[in-house]
Amino acid sequence: MNFQIKEPILVIGLGGVGSKLALRAKESLNSDCLIISNDQKDIHSDCSSIKVSTGSIINPSVQLIRGSTYVVADQIKSKISNYATIVLMANLAGKAGAAISPVVSEICRESEKGLISFAIMPFKYEKDRIFNSGVSLKRIKMNSECTIVLDNDSLLESNPDLNPNTCYGIANNAIMHVVCSLGSSEISTQTNILTTSKDEQSLEESLRDSLKMLYDDAPAGAVKRSMLYIVGGSNIPVGILNSITNLSSGILGESNYQVNSSYSEESKVVILSSIQGTTKFDKYDPLGMIPKENTLDWAQPDCSIDCKLELYQLE
Question: Biggest alpha carbon distance in the chain?
Answer without folding.
Answer: 82
